[in-house]
Amino acid sequence: MPEGRGHCACPITSLTLLVSLTRMTLDILQELDPPQPAHWRHHLLLLYKKGVYLSHTGGKLFWVLGLLILCGFLWTRKGKLKIADITDKYIFITGCDSGFGNLAARTFDKKGFHVIAACLTESGSTALKAETSERLRTVLLDVTDPENVKRTAQWVKNQVGEKGLWGLINNAGIPGVLAPTDWLTLEDYREPIEVNLFGLISVTLNMLPLVKKAQGRVINVSSVGGRLAIVGGGYTPSKYAVEGFNDSLRRDMKAFGVHVSCIEPGLFKTNLADPVKATEKKLAIWEQLSPDIKQQYGEGYIEKSLDKLKGNKSYANMDLSPVVECMDHALTSLFPKTHYAAGKDAKIFWIPLSHMPAVLQDFLLLKRKTELANPKAV
């Protein structure tokens, strides 16, 4: 067999030969016209027709398979195409004191971007500047303070000049109190929603003119908690709302040449997911609960739930780089994705589960919850 012809050609060639031989046999039998039993001719005719059908079907399947392979190759190749130059581009990142934002600021500074890193604390700003080049700039920013956000946007405008802002990465966020819904107050919901949603919107609205000028990118860091209500509290509603804001912004900005992407990390070991702080908050709320609710949940509930919370550490991704790699692709690819799942748990479990029927979601997520002592004691 000549080089370059694979196994796919063999069945098609064999079928073609079978069809030709069957046709020749029928012609010879008709010419000689010997006293052949009628059923032999009938079987040969059926074999000929089946051979023709299989030959045509095999050929179509071969071309369809080839087309699918070509589309897959082009799709993969498209994702690897990058923008030409990054050394003249400015990016603004919120939440750079620690975690994803801190790693992103250091990574993009090394790559050659002009990074403007927003930190909440002076200590976070000082530590970041000590680890990066002189090109990186820091600014103190509380995303929940509208005046602070406006002043920062004006300062950034003076920094970037006519180039505009190539990238806006909305990364700042807090978990708030993670506890059953009937343990919480409105204030417990308000804090994470103020930071994760209204803070993100405030920064976006103030920076958007600069991003439109550069025809750049907006990257919103959401969570798998924006796809599935994994735990009670204000964190999940805030992230669900971020997903909605992200989608409407993406469609509104398309006409301006601005790409908007959403990153959905799974469980990662960051200060955001610190089990010690989460435990302290949960214990503080437990102490303030009414006797009725404590009776329903049981005195042993808090210890069991805290043990499960500690057990979640074993499932957390220790390496933060997958999230920053998603940011990098969204910033530098000619064809950025609309959504990025970051972390093996997000790709294998959380995101697929979010597409499943509610009955299956409830079954799997309720298995993770601690059993109540006496839920009927109302």
TrEMBL record:
One of its GO terms (cellular component) is endoplasmic reticulum membrane. This is Dehydrogenase/reductase 9. The gene is DHRS9. One of its GO terms (molecular function) is all-trans-retinol dehydrogenase (NAD+) activity. Belongs to the short-chain dehydrogenases/reductases (SDR) family. The keyword Amino-acid biosynthesis does not apply. PANTHER family: DEHYDROGENASE_REDUCTASE SDR FAMILY MEMBER 9 (PTHR43313:SF15), SHORT-CHAIN DEHYDROGENASE/REDUCTASE FAMILY 9C (PTHR43313). GO terms for biological process: 9-cis-retinoic acid biosynthetic process; androgen metabolic process; progesterone metabolic process. Keywords: Membrane, Oxidoreductase, Transmembrane, Transmembrane helix. It holds the Pfam family adh_short. It comes from the Eukaryota. The chain crosses the membrane at residues 53-75. It comes from Macaca fascicularis. InterPro entries: NAD(P)-bd_dom_sf, SDR_fam.
